[in-house]
Amino acid sequence: MTKILMTSVRDDEQTAIKEYAKEHNVKILTTPKLIDDAVELTANIDGLVIQQRSKVPADIYEKLHANGLKQIATRTAGFDMLDIKKANENGLIVTNVPAYSPRSVAEFALMQIFRLLRKTYRFDHQVAENDFRWFSDEQSTEIHTATIGIVGVGRIGGTLAKLLHALGATVLGYDTNPRTDLDGIVQFVSKEELLKQADVVSLHVDLNPTSKGLLTANDFAMMKPTAGLVNASRGPVVNTVDLVAALKRGTIAAAALDTFEGEETVAATNRREQGLDDQPLIKELHEMDNVILTPHIAFFTNLAVKNMVDISLDDVMTILNGGRSPHEINL
């Protein structure tokens, strides 16, 4: 019987994993550990599925190769935690799950756009301090009167655009490959024009050499002082030092960040006692009353979790059976 190891497994994934094992007659071993600390479990394993934000240590690839593995599947869209070249050098095919549920992230981004337009971040802080007043600068914007800019109009960005269009918002898009199938829904413009016009800018790009540091001080300076920023893509897309400065100076009004630089040190951890002193930029963002922080959970829905499990395991089975997965990553 085929044996597959899944690392970093959460309780909420177990139902989908058990269903897959039963349906496909395979044995799936699970561990809450990262592959960093579970590589010894691959000694008698045919396939491997991981999920983590931290970099996979360089020596892991050789160990997996020595144990006879032929692939690594990450059940995430992002794969920057993996050294694809080193994996390939050790005979390991790498796959990801590029579209587990575009709707899950799009709906989350829409919620954050509403929160920025309605300035609920301000009221959250005030009410937490027993201040139930409201002030003239907290008057909000109805979404059908707003212009929303989407940077990266792919699967997720395109889904968000359709939701926004249905609500009557004006939708601007910036993408290196404008989509003709969204004619009448998205008006594609330059990045500069989008930043100048948008009441909220929502980021939905992959992390790659061209998208790292996509928004810096010069970009924030182009935005309206009343504008907000949503980042539900990847943290390094935004220069955090520049973002903090822009938020402090009032260059832009607010930000809702589900991803942010340094998140791998805090996401999925309990810092009630430890605090954030070792991550000063994150601490600064956390303390601002015009910032909404969430721990990279835009994807976290019932359908998305099941799809991440099923698609990653399908890729493992395809490769073990000598086939080619459409999700293979080749650099």
Can you describe this structure in just a few lines?
GO terms for molecular function: (S)-2-hydroxyglutarate dehydrogenase activity; D-lactate dehydrogenase (NAD+) activity; NAD binding; phosphoglycerate dehydrogenase activity. The chain is an alpha/beta fold. The chain has 11 helices and 12 strands.
Characterise this structure.
- The chain contains eleven helices and twelve strands.
- It is α/β, with parallel strands linked by helices.
- It folds into two domains: 3-100 and 302-320, 3-Layer(aba) Sandwich (Rossmann fold); 102-293, Rossmann fold, CATH 3.40.50.720.
- The strands form two sheets. Strands 8-7-6-9-10-11-12 form a seven-stranded parallel sheet, sandwiched between helices. Strands 2-1-3-4-5 form a five-stranded parallel sheet.
- Strand 9 (200-203), helix 8 and strand 10 form a beta-alpha-beta unit.
- The protein starts with a strand and ends in an 11-residue tail after the last helix.
- The mean pLDDT is 96.
- Residues 110-298 form the D-isomer specific 2-hydroxyacid dehydrogenase NAD-binding domain.
- Belongs to the D-isomer specific 2-hydroxyacid dehydrogenase family.
